[in-house]
Design goal:
Number of helices of chain B: 19
Strand content of chain B: 5-15%
Strand content of chain A: under 5%
Helix content of chain A: over 70%
Oligomer: heterodimer
Distance between the termini of chain B: 39 Å
Largest sheet of chain A: none
Helix content of chain B: 40-55%
Largest sheet of chain B: 9 strands, mixed
Order of helices and strands of chain B: HEHEHHEHEHEHEEHHHEHHEEEHHHHHHH
């Protein structure tokens, strides 16, 4: 009996040692991949940072309004944030590749899904950044046009333009990420429809007199007034 | 010649039929049927009276008019003019028209480019551009704009006008003083709708291969004048008389800013080696008065100007933060909050603001067109101040005030240089 127990323990120990000896090279390979990945991620980070500085990405980001958001969150400039993000994503990618090679059942599926998700995440980030850039550009364009045309509440108009573009961008981002697609499309449709409906009611019923006055001033009396009262700049 | 490529085959055929000429009269049009007939007759009369022995052609560059403008140009017979004025043409006077609206660049610059290319191909000795929007063109204007080129070898002849003291305020409060301060030449009308030039200057300007840039060609007239200054071409001013537009274009401030100030600001970058070395300003030779001021009463909505300035300052603060220094923003905000009787945008602050705009334009602080648009409300504040300062002023006092502003632009030039170096 005693010999049997010792024999079983000995077999289990040998199995464990053999298993570990079998696992050790994979672990070493994983660590090497992680180390190489870290080095590559560092190089990518340095190169990306240089390129972003060269193309004045911080200025672009400032125009998009993301710099202001980052500053409010006490984060570094956009160039630094993006290069750090790419570093961590690259390194994590290599690390997960190493883990994948360990052959741990269950993890492999999750890792494969992560790699499938990665390009979509980058596309979503791209959409978000350029969406913010477009929102900032068109909001400013609307503000300037409204101020120079002497339209009432130019700030409100500009904010409305910004909000609509950001909402639209956000819904695109969620759709790209595949998160709550149905909900987002529905929410966007409801929000956009409500906004337009609200504006129609506000302008058509609530502000009927204001609307009439504005339109008359703009298209009937306004033209005459402009012609009579303004000076030729040239 | 590369310029030929953007001219239509039909237009090239017309040019070949004309052959070599001495004078080209360029007439850019776009839906000007109301005025183009009399203007063509005036031009023909001007040629008959002033240049009966010269070979001349009228070239109409049209932007796709739908009101029959081009038919009126082609149908304008010199026989009628000759009979009326009892003058006879010794040469055939051609009048040809082309549509530039099919080209990629559908702007005023495209019309000017067409006229330049035609003058170049026809080997004209002198060229004059006339505006279809000037209500009072006289036949003598052609002689005044062309004679200095043909007889005295000048390269660019710009006009001076008799204006109301409150007309052309963008010219008197920004374009003239700033050009004078930076480029060192006292040219009253940097942006002129009528001007004459030599073939040499025209060809040189045409060679500049930047016409495909729509933003560039939008202010071609201003750039042309600046190119003449920086190229050290011989310049001359001639007094034409009253400046009257067919329509008062008060509401078109932003397009006017784009066409003039935008062109001036964008020229400052490439012209930096020239203007950074300028230390003084000199007068260009002038035939007649270099300015004349009318003092008739004029109805102006001053309240609207002040309100639009104040609204602009308050609403555009986020835009100004990207363009102006914090001190300038604070000063402008203080002025925006002032009551009507105390409201005044002083010359120093105006010049400082304009220079900061120019520097921001150079470093593209935000979209360049947005920078130009953002200047409009501040300009309205300056216009209001100018109106109040000169409400009861005599012609001499108005001119003294403009001269003082010019000197302020010159005095503050180091500030612009300092801003430029920090870009």
């Amino acid at each position: 009996m005693r010999e049997m127990i010792i024999g079983e323990l000995s077999t289990a120990f040998h199995e464990m040692v053999r298993g570990f000896a079998h696992f050790l090279p994979s672990l070493i390979v994983m660590l090497i991949i992680a180390l190489i990945g870290w080095l590559i991620a560092m190089v990518v980070k340095v190169i990306l940072r240089s390129i972003l500085r060269l193309i004045k990405f911080d200025k672009l980001s400032q125009n998009a309004g993301t710099s202001q958001l980052l500053a409010k969150a006490a984060l570094p400039p956009a160039t630094e944030v993006l290069s750090r993000f790419v570093f961590w994503v690259t390194w994590l990618g290599f690390f997960l590749l190493g883990v994948y090679l360990l052959g741990i059942f269950g993890l492999q599926n999750q890792i494969a899904r992560f790699f499938v998700f990665l390009p979509r995440m980058f596309v979503a980030m791209f959409i978000m950044f350029f969406g913010l850039l477009a929102a900032s550009f068109f909001a400013r364009a609307a503000l300037l046009a409204a101020v120079n045309a002497n339209v009432p509440s130019p700030g409100l108009l500009s904010t409305a333009v910004r909000v609509v573009i950001i909402v639209f961008t956000t819904s695109m981002v969620f759709e790209e990420l595949g998160l709550a697609e149905q909900t987002m499309v529905l929410a966007f449709g409801i929000a956009f429809g409500a906004l337009m409906f609200g504006l129609a009611i506000a302008f058509g019923i609530g502000g009927r007199d204001l609307a009439r006055h504005f339109l008359e001033k703009r298209f009937v009396h306004g033209k005459r007034e402009d012609n009579n009262d303004e000076l030729s700049p040239l | 010649m590369p310029e030929e490529s953007f001219l239509t085959d039909d237009f090239l055929r017309q040019l070949m039929n004309v052959g070599e000429v001495d004078i080209v009269v360029g007439l850019p049009t776009h839906n000007n049927a109301k005025t183009v007939g009399p203007i063509i007759q005036t031009i023909q009369s001007g040629i008959l009276r002033g240049f009966p022995r010269e070979r001349a052609v009228i070239i109409n560059a049209d932007g796709g008019s739908r009101d029959g403008t081009t038919d009126l140009v082609r149908g304008g017979s010199i026989g009628d003019v000759g009979a009326k004025s009892n003058l006879n043409a010794l040469r055939t006077l051609h009048s040809i028209s082309t549509d530039y609206s099919d080209s990629s660049d559908d702007s005023n610059g495209a019309a000017f480019r067409t006229i330049l290319a035609a003058a170049d191909l026809l080997r004209a000795k002198a060229c004059v551009v006339m505006s279809p929007e000037s209500a009072n063109i006289e036949p003598e204007w052609l002689s005044k704009l062309l004679r200095p080129i043909l007889n005295d070898g000048y390269d660019l002849v710009t006009p001076t006008y008799r204006r109301h003291k409150f007309e052309g305020l963008l010219v008197t409060n920004l374009l003239y003083p700033m050009t004078r301060a930076l480029y060192g030449v006292k040219i009253r009308e940097v942006f002129s709708s009528e001007f004459g030039f030599s073939c040499g200057l025209g060809s040189k300007f045409l060679e500049q291969n930047v016409w495909d840039d729509g933003a560039y060609s939008a202010g071609a007239e201003v750039r042309f004048t600046l190119a003449a200054i920086t190229g050290k071409y011989r310049m001359y001013q001639t007094f034409l008389g009253d400046k009257m537009h067919v329509e008062r274009r008060g509401a078109e401030l932003v397009p006017a800013l784009r066409q003039t100030v935008g062109a001036l600001f964008s020229s400052l970058g490439p012209d930096y080696p020239v203007w950074s070395a300028v230390s003084d300003s000199t007068s260009a030779p002038t035939n007649g008065a270099d300015h004349q001021v009318l003092l008739d009463p004029l109805r102006v909505n001053r309240k609207r100007l002040r309100e639009m300035f104040s609204t602009g300052i308050m609403e555009l603060e986020s835009v100004f933060q990207a363009i102006l220094s914090p001190e300038t923003i604070v000063e402008l905000r203080q002025i925006a909050g002032m009551s009507e009787d105390k409201f005044r945008l002083p010359a120093e602050l105006w010049v400082k603001t304009v220079y900061e705009f120019a520097a921001s334009y150079q470093r593209s602080a935000i979209n360049r067109d947005h920078i130009i648009q953002a200047l409009a409300p501040i300009f309205r504040g300056r216009v209001y101040t100018f109106l109040m300062e000169n409400l009861h002023a005599s012609a001499e006092e108005v001119e003294n005030n403009i001269e003082a502003l010019c000197l302020e632009f010159e005095r503050m030039r180091p500030y612009l240089l300092q801003l430029w170096k920090s870009i």
